[in-house]
Amino acid sequence: MTRREWLALISSAPLVKAAETNAPAAPVSIARMASYDEDATAALAAMFDQLGGLERLVRNKSVTVKINMTGGTGNRFRGMALGQTHYTHPKLIGATAYLMGRAGAKRIRFVESSWGTGGPLEEEMLNSGWNVRSLQSAATGVEFENTNALGKAKKYARFTVPGQAYMYPGYDLNHAYDETDVFVSMAKLKNHATCGVTLSLKNCFGILPASIYGDSAGVDEPNEKPVDGRLKVGHEGRRQPSKSAPQELHFGQNHDPGYRVPHIVADISAARPIHLAIIDGVETVTGGEGPWIRGLKPVKPGVLLAGLNPVCTDAVAMAVMGYSPRTTRGTAPFQTCDNTLLLSEGHGVGTTDLKRIEVRGVPIEKAMFKFEG
Amino acid sequence: VPARWPWQDARSLELLSGSPVNCLLLEKYSAELVAAANDRGLVTLAVLTPGADVAAEVKLALAAKVTGIVLEGDFPEGTGARVREAVGGAPVVELSARNRLALGSPGPILGTYQGVWPGISAQDDGAKHAGPTASVWIDTNTGFIRAARAWGGATIWIANQPPPKTVITGARYLQVYADAAISGGRWVIALDNDFAGRLHRGDADAMSDWRRLSTLASYFERRPEWRAMREDGQLAIVQDPAKGGLLSGGILDMIAVKHTPMRPVPKQHLSADALAGTTLAVNVDNDSLTPEQKEILRNFTRSGGTLLTGPPGWKDPTPNAGSITLEKAELERLNDIWRDVNNMVGRRNLGVRLFNVSSMLSNLLAGADGKTAVLHLVNYSDYPVENVTVHFLGDYRKATLVMPDAAEAPLEIYPTEEGKGVDIAKVGICATVRLEK
Predict the structure, then answer these.
(1) Which residues of B touch A228 (CB under 8 A)?
(2) CB distance B355–A126 less than 8 Å?
(3) Given an 8 Å threshold on Cβ–Cβ distance, is B355 in contact with A78?
(4) HEC states along chain B?
(5) Among A220, A368, B239, B411, which residue is least crowded by beta carbons within 10 Å?
């Protein structure tokens, strides 16, 4: 795509009335990284410097990093390593841990709600072919937690959606999302069958514990041995979460996953603010979020993004993917769903207006890698 | 090391240079081929099938100077004995339906022509997965071989042939061979027509695939001690090998896919000794046990063992002649048992726990002296798997990685929560971790 085509694309995108035009803006850094064999530490360090330095964000702080390990570890696309397709790559995770340690973070806890299990995250990482010992030694204070259930705590932490929530007034989450000074969403640059794109915002749909929001969640209390996903509660609204958690506001009124999931994600982005968004677009997939989506293709955009505001970061990421971040339902990549970014903008989380977002490092048009329409 | 030999010319035997294959199954046997094979010290077995005049066929075969006879198929009762009498001391191998196997018999070889074609199971449309949850199912003969081998000392020959009208890669042949070999069985090598044709013409790719298959066969044959080892681990599966043990896709294969090491204990051999060292036991078909056998299991629980018994009314299915897999209804019932086993095992380490092995099957075997164990791994995917982690129990102080196409390499042992661990950088088709005290 040429710069002229790019400018035409963003200027023709429809504006959305619901969007908060005065939602905050923050700079976004883009870097080129052709493959995971390149120096990820150097690339990320330069990006963090462009954002004002990591020390300012994490020194003497506890950090929780939500990575993306969607789907079961056995579900591989053509036998490829998971980090090369739909998982955040472990090299970037290790580099992030190292840089945060060097910047003075006192604890760096990597978290994910592993599919269908409440077992240790370390085991899911081993099952992904990751070297957990190496990740652990990247910095002092590195920890891992599977947030799909109660985990190492005795109770869940409640996060209330400020203002008027779309779907649920609040969410009960694993303690890791509460016991932290800094929350990082470390996502993958890819499409999503239900949400159009999976970026730093959608990545946080995975913070919902299946013990409460899963198909096998207890009716009254959480089921600490979850065995499946969140289709019935989150995607379809066929049941409520466990009664111990805040209940859906308008239960039974909408069963469209393309409406529900973006609205839930937007609620989460307001309830559990993201301080740093990192998006891995070095190697990824297009056409969906994982190997269970027909027509998935592996691609190598060779790009990394980072930003201090998740909506701004995702907006720039969408532009890099060749989409307008202000596109509404009916237009790619939101053919059958609402635009999560605009909904988050509506909550005042951040702006999708590219004209207000300063891009540092590589310009968008030079980083652009067109994803499927 | 048996192979179905599809060619009649003596020149074809040149393929066996450097190959451990030393036993040829011949549907047709030209004098030229048999003589040349005899000169090379190879065993030649004439393959007879039901329908013909067996006595006459045997005479013809012996006149052609083959070494022995293979009876492949379901002959009338007593045919094997009559043929053995007719051939004197010459070897006779019966390749029967699984449900007609003479399990526990003293013969050196127990063979069947029935087997699933090992590999990652695909749906009808070719897709391997259906949703974010799906983990792969691997079609395998390992459960059957383990069950049959646990009852007697015979070597199991599994003589199933490649599925027709299917493109079979060279790698797939390796997987099929290793599928039997990791459980101490032998697949009777059988090539599809396309591969055989290309090999006979000297096609370079086909020759390369054949050499790889020979290398893999040599890998197992050079280490006969592996075949003498027995399944190890703390989970015992008490089952009648003459019933569900004969089936593929049953409880043994379900547990194999979970990578939980297990010891099949034939109910015919159920004793306190057979359960020694185990902490969990699954009694698949309680109604089929004698009062004495039930008492053995009661004593097992009294001494601290955990016992899981199949649901009331459940009867371990018996295969019929035409089918070696479970019927849908049986599979659904078996899934109930499987869920209970899965819950019971959970994340416990019952000898070994493996990570990043979703496309693999494994088998933990231990030597009689208790000083050495081997963990076999077979990768059924089309790609090498990187970074496999093994957590094991036991006071093993030395770990060595053994692979068909690489020199043996020591593995660094590190402590883990439950025991010790080693990491394997890459597994192509097959790898073995040898553990020594």
Answers:
(1) 133
(2) yes
(3) no
(4) CEEECCCCCHHHHHHHCCCCCCEEEECCCCHHHHHHHHHCCCEEEEEECCCCCHHHHHHHHHHCCCCEEEEECCCCCCHHHHHHHHHCCCCEEEEECHHHCCCCCCCCEEEECCCCCCEECCCCCCCCCCCCCCCCCEECCHHHHHHHHHHCCCEEEECCCCCCCCCCCHHHHHHHHHHHHCCCCEECECCCHHHHHHHHHCCHHHHHHHHHHHHHHHHHHCCHHHHHCEECCCEEEEECCCCHHHCECCHHHHHHHCCCCCEEEEHHHCCHHHHCCCCEEEECCHHHCCHHHHHHHHHHHHCCCEEEECCCCCCCCCCCCCCCECCHHHHHHHHHHHHHHHHHHCCCCCCEEEECCCCEEEEEEECCCCCEEEEEEEECCCCCEEEEEEEECCCCCEEEEEECCEEEEEECCEECCCCEEEEEEEECCEEEEEEEC
(5) A220
Distance separating alpha carbons of residues B201 and B13, to the nearest angstrom: 13
pLDDT (tens place) for every residue of chain A, 373 residues total: 555 555 554 544 444 444 446 899 999 999 999 999 999 999 999 999 999 999 999 999 999 999 999 999 988 888 889 999 999 999 999 999 999 999 999 999 999 999 989 999 999 999 999 999 999 999 999 999 999 999 989 999 999 999 999 999 999 999 999 999 999 999 999 999 999 999 999 999 999 999 999 999 999 999 999 988 899 999 999 999 999 999 999 999 999 999 999 999 999 999 999 999 999 999 999 999 999 999 999 999 999 999 999 999 999 999 999 999 999 999 999 999 999 999 999 999 999 999 999 999 999 999 999 998 6
- Closest in A74, A129, A294 to B135, CB measured: A74
Task: Please give, rounded to a whole number of angstroms, the shortest distance from the CA of A70 to a CA of chain B.
Answer: 8
> Hey, of B129, B391, B416, B426, which one would you mutate to test binding to chain A, going by the most A CBs within 10 A of its CB?
B129
- Closest approach of chain B CAs to the CA of A358, in angstroms? 37
- Which amino acid makes up residue B218? S
What is the nearest CA distance from A30 to chain B, expressed in angstroms? 30
The residues near A261 (Cβ < 8 Å, ≥ 6 apart) are: A194, A195, A202, A205, A234, A235, A337, A340
Q: Answer whether A128 sits within 8 Å of B356, measured CB to CB.
A: yes
Q: Which two tokens stand for residue B181?
A: 């070999």
> Which residue bears the tokens 């089929």?
B288
| d(CA A118, nearest CA chain B) in Å | 11
* Burial letters B334-363, b for 16+ CB under 10 A, else e: beebbeebeeebeeebbbbbbbbbbbbbbb
